[in-house]
């Protein structure tokens, strides 16, 4: 389960960074924050 959370978190953070680069600041920040919260190092919503 931890591996799956890492993959989801990485995908969300990368999508957030891409959104920030494209100028979608709010959406990018939301994706990065959600990615950090879901990741096993953060406050996981699944545990």
In short:
The protein has 47 residues and is mainly alpha-helical.
Features:
47 residues; mainly alpha; 74% helix
Descriptive report:
By secondary structure, the protein is an all-alpha fold. The protein has one domain. It has two helices and no strands.
Count of DSSP E strands?
Answer: 0
Give the termini distance in whole angstroms: 11 Å
Strand content: under 5%
Mean pLDDT: 84
Protein topology:
Elements: H1 2-22, H2 25-38
